[in-house]
Automatic annotation (TrEMBL):
<dbReference type="InterPro" id="IPR001667">
    <property type="entry name" value="DDH_dom"/>
</dbReference>
<feature type="region of interest" description="Disordered">
    <location>
        <begin position="1"/>
        <end position="29"/>
    </location>
</feature>
<dbReference type="InterPro" id="IPR003156">
    <property type="entry name" value="DHHA1_dom"/>
</dbReference>
<protein>
    <submittedName>
        <fullName>DHHA1 domain-containing protein</fullName>
    </submittedName>
</protein>
<feature type="domain" description="DHHA1">
    <location>
        <begin position="252"/>
        <end position="344"/>
    </location>
</feature>
<feature type="domain" description="DDH">
    <location>
        <begin position="48"/>
        <end position="192"/>
    </location>
</feature>
<dbReference type="InterPro" id="IPR051319">
    <property type="entry name" value="Oligoribo/pAp-PDE_c-di-AMP_PDE"/>
</dbReference>
<dbReference type="InterPro" id="IPR038763">
    <property type="entry name" value="DHH_sf"/>
</dbReference>
<dbReference type="Pfam" id="PF01368">
    <property type="entry name" value="DHH"/>
</dbReference>
<dbReference type="Pfam" id="PF02272">
    <property type="entry name" value="DHHA1"/>
</dbReference>
Length: 371
């Protein structure tokens, strides 16, 4: 009957609970509403520091630079972009150099100079960033699965359905009616292109729309310089090591790269090994500055790479994360050489069991025969 409280309302009233539905998360809001909330958090602040994840990739760098640009243009505040670790892959070095991106290593920054902190393409609890624990993040923007602790930030756009974080900030850019420079447009375009593997991996319609919006705005000549840089000799030496040490376990391939000159190469090798015919799983790992970097690629849509790597690596400390088909971890290494080897064996055995190939006899990639 009209005016009669529903059963749900009566139950809520009797328990003292509000009958109002829970407020939607920021990730569920339209782009314009997200932008308004973002600017509301930033207003009144003087200087922002936007941090990528450590050893940043193009998606993370492009999104961070664009967020800083939006804050400068729409709030009138100074904004810097910082990163920890290194920019190591040749394409990523070219990305920063060719586009002249205004990014600084955290060693060149004083955190006390800033009163607003943002994390892009990462989240506070993940641990793969350089924001000190004493400083809470005010802004968190990430296309990876939501970590509940991230919702403690005043602005947390996390847990949406996007193939790249660059796509997310393109939405803000368009809602703010800001036209990106050629360099920023090219950075965002390449960020989406790289993270979705040319729109062929975990791509949504929003990724496609952003990609097409950016395409006429980016510089194809600059893009070519980024995608086809000159490569150092050690790049080819590392790939030689990867192939030489790769072992095939049925539908899985595993390779130990030993010591690498940049942790970025672990992900690149894991990606490349996935092209081997018949593979459903690819695992690469290597040591860099007393840390073990692990990269996982998965073709089986029933398996979530991010969840798998977290479940396996959580006992080893460090940080780990990812999403459907790709994930990575960074684990601390200590002790003597034999202890490190034992840790690696245990780690690989856990992955082989998860892949369902623990009983397969390993075959060297160099001697493997086509079926």
């Amino acid at each position: 009957m009209p005016g009669t409280p529903s059963a749900h309302t009566r139950r809520a009233s009797s328990t003292g609970e509000s009958a109002e539905p829970p407020a939607p998360r920021i990730a569920q809001l339209p782009a314009r509403d997200k932008l308004e909330r973002l600017l509301r958090v930033a207003r009144g602040k003087k200087k922002a520091l936007i941090l990528t994840h450590d050893n940043p990739d193009p998606d993370s760098l492009a999104a961070a630079v664009t967020l800083a640009h939006i804050l400068e243009r729409r709030v009138g505040m100074e904004a810097r972009v910082g990163y920890g670790g290194i920019v190591g892959r040749a394409e990523n070095i070219a990305f920063v150099k060719v586009l002249r991106l205004p990014v600084s290593h955290v060693s060149q920054l004083d955190f006390d100079d800033f009163d607003l902190f943002g994390l892009v393409d990462t989240q506070p609890p993940v641990g793969n960033h350089s924001l000190p624990s004493r400083l809470p993040a005010d802004i968190v923007i990430d296309h990876h699965p939501l970590r509940d602790e991230s919702l403690q930030a005043p602005f947390a756009d996390v847990g949406g359905d996007f193939g790249a974080t660059s796509t997310m900030v393109v939405e803000y850019l368009r809602a703010a009616r800001l036209e990106p420079s050629v360099e920023v447009a090219t950075a965002l375009f390449y960020g989406i292109k790289a993270d979705t593997r040319d729109l062929g991996r975990e791509t949504t319609q929003t990724d496609i729309d952003s990609y097409l919006w950016l395409f006429p705005r980016c510089d194809k000549h600059l893009l070519g310089q980024i995608e086809h840089p000159e490569l150092p000799a050690r790049y080819f030496q590392l790939h030689h090591t990867a192939i030489e040490r790769a072992k095939v376990y049925g539908t899985a391939i595993v390779t130990d790269l030993e010591e690498v000159y940049t942790p970025d190469m672990v992900a690149e090798v894991a990606e490349r090994m996935m092209f081997l015919e018949g593979m459903k799983w690819s695992l690469a790992y290597a040591t860099y500055r007393n840390q073990l970097f692990v990269s996982l690629r998965v073709k089986d849509r029933r398996m979530n790479a991010g969840k798998l790597i977290r479940d396996i690596c959580e006992d080893f400390g460090g940080s780990s994360g990812g999403h459907g088909s790709m994930a990575g971890a960074r684990l601390p290494l200590s002790g003597r050489a034999n202890q490190r080897k034992a840790l690696k064996r245990e780690l690989v055995n856990r992955f082989l069991e998860a892949f369902g190939v623990e009983d397969e006899r390993p075959v060297s990639l160099l001697t493997a025969q086509d079926a």
